[in-house]
Design goal:
single chain; about 375 residues; alpha/beta; three-stranded antiparallel sheet; 12 helices; about 40% helix; globular
């Protein structure tokens, strides 16, 4: 089996992750819910994981890192905790439905959305520029300068792999007084992120993709001075007799028992990332992607989507074979060659509209540091035989 669907979730993980989860299930109590050894063991694991995440993302401190179940929860928390009726909010066409649907909900409640499109989206679907799916930075800058409360922006498209220049955009947001919310679902752990340098006010991430942690883990990091209204309220382990949920971070955004067992696995994954180094991991997955790309470019009728001239990008290749249905191509690879990819819409409707692939979808090959160049070449050969 060759697994090339890492943009959906990591399949290959360090052995230490599974070992940490198993160990936590056997030994961990409920962190911050008592002072006996099992509860304290849970609290230590959770705090140490906050420290590692704050270090990785250059967040203001571990107290500014709150845990969630995934990016979707983090993004809902950020969007619904910042946007109010009447606010103007900017968003790009590159976004996942985890961004778009909460924003559409806020739009229905009175917010105003400003959607920034892609360069060349008005051209015919086969146009080379349109297929690159490039964000229109000029239009984005104009909207930001026109006055919006917040910008929600992905760090990399989950469809094309195109990387967004969050440092440049963050500087624009800081000068314009715009709250900058970044979706790091496809980049956290692999592409460097520095909240301070990149002027990020709110960073949303998941633990089960590039961070290689368990599913059911994720988080939200807040910059200094940024407040987010909690999505949930309830048990917190502190201030029991208060009618209101605590406002102090990170408790303010963490109602109820955390996924301590999953967080233990995430801590182990973060340790592996720190030991290996993001640069080393990025080079490994990029080598596999480049080998695949080199071969599939030669397939007659292949249509590639994304800007592969970028020096840095997510390790994703989206393509179609002529007018073949993307789902059928993906099924062929799985059933005939045990090569696992993803076909269809990838929860990115505006990006497909920009590329002109709304009806056909696209076959997405997404690589991890555990994929080899030989696996990539086998996948390209199998695709050529469709």
């Amino acid at each position: 089996m060759i697994y090339l669907d890492s943009a959906a979730t990591s399949y290959y993980r360090p052995d230490s992750v599974a070992e940490a989860v198993a160990g936590a299930i056997r030994t961990m109590g409920n962190g911050s819910r008592g002072t006996h050894p099992a509860a304290l063991a849970g609290a230590r694991v959770i705090y140490e994981t906050r420290e590692l995440l704050a270090e990785l993302f250059h967040a203001p401190g571990p107290d500014r890192v709150a845990f969630t179940a995934n990016s979707t929860e983090s993004l809902n928390m950020a969007i619904k905790g910042v946007v109010r009726p009447g606010d103007r909010v900017a968003v790009t066409a590159l976004e996942h439905n985890s961004v778009l649907r909460p924003l559409y909900q806020m739009e229905a409640e009175g917010a105003v959305l400003e959607i920034v499109g892609c360069v060349g989206a008005e051209r015919p679907p086969g146009d080379p520029l349109r297929r690159k799916g490039l964000l229109d930075y000029h239009a984005l800058k104009t909207i930001l300068e026109g006055g919006v409360r917040a910008l929600v922006c992905t760090h990399a498209s989950n469809l094309t792999g195109n990387l967004v220049d969050i440092r440049r955009i963050g500087q624009w947001c800081r000068r314009a007084g715009v709250i900058f919310i970044v979706d790091a679902s496809q980049t956290a752990g692999i592409i460097p992120i520095d909240m301070e340098r990149d002027c990020i006010d709110i960073l949303c991430f998941t633990g089960h993709k590039g961070l290689m942690g368990p599913q059911g883990t994720g988080g939200i990091c807040l910059g200094e001075g940024i407040e987010v209204e909690p999505l949930l309220t309830g048990g917190s382990g502190i201030m029991t007799f208060s009618r209101e949920h605590p406002r102090v971070m990170p408790t303010a955004l963490e109602a109820g028992t955390l996924n301590g067992h999953g967080i233990a696995g995430l801590r182990a994954a973060l340790g592996y990332l720190k030991e290996q180094g993001p640069d080393s991991l990025r080079r490994r997955e990029r080598a596999a992607m480049d080998a695949f790309l080199e071969q599939v470019r030669e397939i007659p009728g292949v249509k590639l989507y994304g800007d592969f001239d970028q020096p840095e990008r997510a390790a994703i290749v989206a393509l179609n074979l002529g007018d073949e249905d993307s789902g059928e191509v993906s099924d062929f690879l799985a059933q005939e060659h045990e090569i696992y990819t993803r076909g269809g819409g990838h929860c990115a409707p505006l990006m497909h509209r920009a590329l002109g692939t709304e009806r056909q979808g696209a076959v997405r090959f997404s690589f991890s540091p555990f994929n080899t160049v030989e696996e990539a070449r086998q996948a390209a050969a199998a695709l050529a035989g469709y």
